[in-house]
Amino acid sequence: MAHRYRLGIDVGGTFTDGILINEETGETRIAKVPSTPKDPSIGFLEAVERILREAGIETRDVGYLVHGTTVATNAIIEGNLSPTGFITTEGFRDMLEIQRQIRPALYDLLFEKPQPLAPRYLCFGIPERLDATGEVLTALDEKAVAAAAEQLKKEGVEALAVCYLHSYLNPAHEMRTREIVQEVFPDAVVSLSSEVAPEFREYFRASTTVINAGVRPIVERYLSNIEDRLRDAGLKGELLIMQSSGGVLTFEAARTKPVFMVESGPAAGVIVSAHLGQVLGFDNIMSFDMGGTTAKTGLIEHGTPRITKEYEVGTAARAERGAKGAGYPIRTPVIDLVEIGAGGGSIAWVDPGGMLRVGPQSAGADPAPVAYGQGGTEPTITDANLVLHRLDADHFLGGEMRLDEEAAYQAIKEKCADPLGLDVVEVALGIVEIANTVMSNALRRISVQRGYDPRDFVLVAFGGAGPVHANRLAVELEIPTILVPMSPGTTSAMGLLVTDLKHDYSTTLIQRTDQLDAETVNRLYGEMEERGKKALVGEGMEHASIGFERQVEMRYVGQSYELPIPLGDGKVEDALEGMLRHFHEEHERAYGFAAPDEPVEFVTLRHTAVGSIAKPKLRELPEREGDVKAACRAVRQVFFAEAGGFVDCPSYDRYQLAAGGVIEGPAIIEEMDSTTVIHPEFLAEVDRYGNLLIKPRK
Fold it and tell me: Which residues span the domain enclosing 142?
């Protein structure tokens, strides 16, 4: 029997989601199991086994398995990188200590820089030097390399990062260094900056390379463990992993460049939002993904997700995601996300000044919110929503899990309401509204602060908790339409199955546009294209399915920041005039001014090789007669501030809603993996694919 199924598994902080799609019919099945933070592969394999068992599918019928994971991110945040050595040019040994002069909060005298990625005693400066054109000024001291490798071997490091000055122009010294290290210390896992991030700005390049080296052993063990167990279970299909830029990589490619998969899970949510927009005819979308641990938001303009290189990882970077300098920079393409510690499991607490606060600490999967009855004692956003009756204690996870409303009530009373001298319901509303404010600020950061007007966008809300809060956020930002896809809790996993194979390449080339060496630019793009084609053909892609996307990062001469401008398929000299026009427009949008008379320069050439994978079809709802009343499950009292308290509110079974149905708020729509809250003065329409479109009543 031919492979007919695709399987997506997304490991989140609280739940591990699985989605199985029949390639021929578009029929989907979903599964949700608690994540296993101590060993994520346990939850992963449990989700695979469960979804296949429930669907009655043999493992051999799965043609593709795509995985989204936060293994790499968690290793960095928790400071669990493998012991990593660092080799650089003599005189630059302290690069990882010095980092940058910028700080996230200008007047914060207590700010401490993140710990260096490799301690000083594991950093070595090697006599060698290239100039800014890649010419050799000082030959590589091979004896010094051998001595450093010998010392690192004695220190017991597992991984090694090499980052020489200007090696992005000439990688010869780095390549030779790897050869010497492999002779002296064959067990070391070596990452070269000229392969991982061949771009200028040495600290950014070094940081990216050290992170890549440090997570490699961890990611290799994790992927090998999963691969061995899947192969033992008889799964012969292709194994792919989501990368931060929104494409997928083979397990093999991800093993050598794990830094490309740092934001693997969250990227899938933005990709599926773009896919839904494409199918439904929405060009401009803000994606809002609220899970159990964090909320993530991304922006899609003209059908394309925004990609950034201004990206940081690390504990402080998560808490201060808007501020630069709090974490470790990564110079690989990442979907532009704002991520905050506000999920269903975010803990509500009263600070020493008597203020109610929410997050960023999360109860996660273990011990989970109080209402789950798994030992959690701290009240969370989920507990607050339950006290407001926005969640149904008896129908959570499709009735698989009963929530304890009394325990949630008592936890909010004891930990928050009593210390504040306030009513429990009032405090529960306060918890939800504080979380909403934090999340609407995140949506402002991805839109208003990037020069976009939220009123021009559709808000796609998903994640288990996203549809509970989306309506309120849309009011705050005056977003006219909210789209809630089917099975919002597993929508991110769906994103894993609608993305293409991608390989990203880049090279720095600083040249003024009025003195451009077009021949060199075309040659460099040609070389990157060949590498991309070779990689995709090696992964079994047909030539007809391979495409390319090219971008040039440009800036006014003398600026410190660049803007990415698309370059079409032709030669650069033919496209230059249009690119310059586009650059001035983009500069006006991003910064509020443009200077068309100023000289402009190219900085970095970027190239993406894309292997198109056939996308599964969205399944249309069968034609059904009857009105929405048939789907009404019950009427219960639900708290809405704008209605002045608890009001009668019908709850509907989403699976019983027919296309074309209209539900007037206030209303609650429930399904296995999420709950959608429709506020008074709003209504929801069901489209032919079962998506909910929530809009203000006229």
Answer: 81-208
